[in-house]
């Protein structure tokens, strides 16, 4: 556990990407199997570890520490896992011998072998045998979520740095392997052949696009690129091999169970990249329906007949990774697309269609098309180099996404809640509202919550406003002054807006964030609910607010 | 005699009415007894200062030789009569010259411990427990979360990082008096014998430690004017933490900011301070040491001067030891 704990301690505080890579590569090089493989899994989010409830951990800490002293400590530290790691054993002197701590592999094996009634005693015993830094690492693993600013991609990059192997080669193998990745490390260290995947029907890491930024396109020749509409569904991967048919989300979650209609229609062998949507395919001549309709089908384990009839799902195909058992990712985009086209042509017309190319000759034309797309479910365009190979990850250059600008409204801050971790001493989660007609004239109705988008300096301003203008407290939440002539106006940007029965206002925003602090505006100048409803109905929605 | 009659808090600091003196006063007074040379305890402008020779020397280095009207040096264990109050100085183990001050009159003894620690520190005399009726303690790290690990193991983290990042200049933040010299000594004890570069603010005190027989190895000024910036690749630079927020620090090669302090125990503290390599090295007691010291001395009363008073008072209450916070103003709660 100790090497992993030391790694976490360093990663948390290392801001630079290169610094993180060095720390990770050194860890993977110096740590034996299977510990490093479990460490890799923990960082990449593939570690399966029996969870422990925070309440149980707190109970264990209080077995040996006065609750008042615990509370003082928690107030000071702010993070429950860190508090428990530090005050464990009532704050007695540390007595764990160096080298005498359980190894990460042993901890994982032990936790996963536990029966329900054994958890309490086992966790107590483990905490007794770890030092504070290892306790912290263990508690973070057991409560889920490391949140240390290391992505799976970065971990793979470190494997590449450690071994000299290309990262795309590692990505290609990744989803066919499991923790503790012993065969992967053996290959990386040149001790064994490259692991052979059991079946191509596994998930393959997807290729992602970078957003177009100022000046990106000027340097590029439009003739080298093809464009497609960017549909507002969810990106999926269909795998079909020897009777095994799967539908994966873009992060590799198996969502086949919720989409039996799509699965049943697969009549091809291979791996297809596409957009999962609800409605009808282009070639069945019916409309593509909105993301909120698709949401009815998401996050379900199973689905009933009514759902299947009301919200039929289909896949709009973007790319082909495997044709049959043949890996064609090294072929060009246009070559892959030709084979994809032939495959989709023979597939059921009501469940599959081919994403159309958008003809354009210069970037200005494409810009106009992007801003006024022919279909409301289009959220922009994708730009792909015609000769690009299919490479997992988000590489700069071959693929771009050029989205319609996000929606924008001015809203009024209504409630603020303390943040977590680094932000635990700040009010950093804001509920905001817009004006609507109420029984007693205009009143604010909450329409969303945002906790990012602002800079640290702006957070200071927001936090100070909350502290100076609190009207009521509800636990960690404060209500703040929000009157027509006094309050805080926030410009909120968001990606989309849907009807919602769960929210009092009847609308729900997607990815809301604070775009700007509008100290120049009075709350009375903020937007009205009717504006949001109009955005929802608008086809297409407004591009920019004056 | 009630303890409060022998010593009680006033706006200028702890005052002893029968002896007509203050201990570690925060304002200029006629007669001051000073525990150690940190600036929140040792201020200039008093009429008369009684302190250890080393503390007097350090005050003179920091404030100039005219820092007081008159000075008197106290040797450890020497009984000194101040207006009928028997005063003795005892080592506190905090920094060079640091002392606890015991006051005794009519069979009542109060010990003002100043800042103190129990851990091993080759740069100063170790803390000596003194039996007393009232023990006045600091509580800088008075929460169960604080455990100061083995300082050598912490120092080894710095040396390990130098191997991992051999290009980067490792900037170690350490307070100018005590911590800086202790960290340098620790680095030497871990086998590092290359020159260590120091910020100008450390020069006089490092020279003084050297003159007092504490070998710090080869120290060089961390100035770039005439030298090549690449001279600092993979070098250790020690300086006051405030200097690292400054433009001064940006001159070095990819500086890796480290900070030697007990506060580094809490990750978010380190993160907020932009510290990449926290070294938990403290010149104060951690929580177990505070409890052990009170248990060992077994005073009938504990007064808590500064820091996290509430938790330590709570613990004393739970042990049945009378305890109260003194709410003194002017001392740094955030000492290292």
What attributes does this structure have?
heterodimer, A: 546 residues, alpha+beta, D-amino Acid Aminotransferase, Chain A, domain 1, OB fold (Dihydrolipoamide Acetyltransferase, E2P), seven-stranded antiparallel β-sheet, six-stranded mixed β-sheet, 19 helices, 21 strands, disordered C terminus, B: 336 residues, alpha/beta, Metallo-beta-lactamase, Chain A, Rossmann fold, globular
What would you say this structure looks like, in words?
In chain A, helix 1 crosses helix 9 (132-143) and helix 3 (35-44) crosses helix 7 (104-112). Chain A has 546 residues and is α+β, with helices and mostly antiparallel strands. The model of chain A is unreliable at 539-546 (pLDDT under 50). In chain A, strands 13, 14, 15, 16, 17, 18 and 21 form a 7-stranded antiparallel sheet that branches. In chain A, strands 4, 5, 6, 7, 8 and 9 form a 6-stranded mixed sheet that branches. Chain A has 19 helices and 21 strands. By secondary structure, chain B is an alpha/beta fold. Chain B has 2 domains: 3-145 and 284-325, Ribonuclease Z/Hydroxyacylglutathione hydrolase-like (Metallo-beta-lactamase, Chain A); 151-279, Rossmann fold. Chain B is 25% helix and 26% strand. Chain B has 10 helices and 19 strands. Chain B has helices at 3-6, 53-63, 151-164, 179-189, 203-211, 241-244, 247-250, 267-272, 287-297, 309-319, and strands spanning 8-10, 13-16, 21-23, 31-33, 46-51, 68-73, 80-82, 85-91, 99-105, 108-112, 134-139, 170-173, 196-198, 219-221, 236-239, 256-260, 277-279, 301-307, 322-325. Chain B is globular. The chains are: A alpha+beta (546), B alpha/beta (336). Chain A binds chain B through residues 9-10, 12-15, 19, 22-23, 26, 65-66, 68-70, 72-73, 76-79, 82-83, 86-87, 90-94, 98, 132, 136, 421-422, 424, and chain B through 143-147, 149, 153, 164-165, 265-268, 270-272, 275-278, 287-288, 308, 310-311, 314-315, 318.
